Automatic annotation (TrEMBL):
Domain EF-hand: start-end pairs: 35-70, 154-189
Keyword Plastid: no
Official protein name in the record: EF-hand domain-containing protein
UniProt cross-references to Pfam families, sorted A to Z: EF-hand_5, EF-hand_7
Keywords attached to this entry: Calcium
InterPro entries per record: CML21-like, EF-hand-dom_pair, EF_Hand_1_Ca_BS, EF_hand_dom
Species the sequence originates in: Rhodosorus marinus
Record Gene3D superfamilies: EF-hand
PANTHER family: TROPONIN (PTHR23064)
Coiled-coil ranges (or none): none
């Protein structure tokens, strides 16, 4: 699965340039990222049928089965494993975002339900490609830090630390999943944040059935987790 993701990223980098041209341009988009990522919470809670505030592999598999995904069980298990950053065999909300990213790239029947979510995930991929100077589909952590330090303004200490922590498994490279996990933190997304019911503009039925929306604006949607 990781190799497929890498090939997709390499192809995307060739097909269209990243919308992120500098670290500052990424920082300006963090609020858009936060909004889009937070809109995924209803889907997370619908997949979390045990109400444990985490998602087990069995819950993810059942959700994918109901949606009729073509992803082989072996690949789904690998996606789950690569999303499980902390190694606890359960997905937190921020780890669930990695699963959504991977499925959006490899699963034809999976689609993100709102424009805000699509925009957030596009920004995340573009940010990854901005740092992927060598076009390999993975990031060398040292090169990422060096690219960040090219900014004349430098980085706040907290941002320096977060860059240094991107390589969650200590492998020396940063995958898209690790990057999305860190990026969600930069955007202020928290695992245990409770979404205000009054602010929800749609309901995402991820038993996984079709997403249904209560919105003033008509949005062309695809099915989603």
């Amino acid at each position: 699965v990781e190799k497929r993701i890498e090939k997709i990223l390499i192809s995307r980098a060739k097909d269209r340039p990243s919308s992120i041209k500098s670290l500052n341009s990424l920082l300006l988009k963090l609020s858009t990222l936060e909004q889009g990522f937070d809109e995924c919470r209803r889907g997370f809670h619908n997949v979390d049928t045990s109400n444990s505030n985490t998602i087990s592999y069995e819950e993810l598999k059942e959700a994918a089965r109901k949606q009729g995904f073509a992803t082989a069980e072996e690949d789904l298990h690998l996606i789950f494993a690569h999303s499980d950053i902390d190694g606890h065999s359960e997905l937190t909300f921020r780890e669930f975002l990695i699963t959504l990213m991977y499925l959006n790239l490899v699963e034809e029947k999976f689609n993100l339900p709102t424009e805000s979510i699509n925009q957030a995930f596009d920004i995340a991929v573009d940010a990854f490609l901005y740092f992927d100077r060598e076009g390999t589909g993975v990031l060398n952590k040292e090169e990422v830090i060096e690219a960040a330090f090219e900014q004349k303004e430098g980085l706040p200490d907290s941002m320096k630390k977060r860059f240094e922590e991107m390589d969650a498994d200590g492998s020396g490279i940063v995958t898209l999943g690790e990057f999305v996990y860190t990026l969600s933190e930069w955007a202020g997304v928290e695992d245990n944040e409770i979404e205000d019911e009054e602010d929800e503009e749609y309901t995402l039925d991820v038993s996984l059935h079709r997403a249904s929306f209560n919105s003033r604006t008509s949005v062309t949607t695809r099915s989603a987790l």
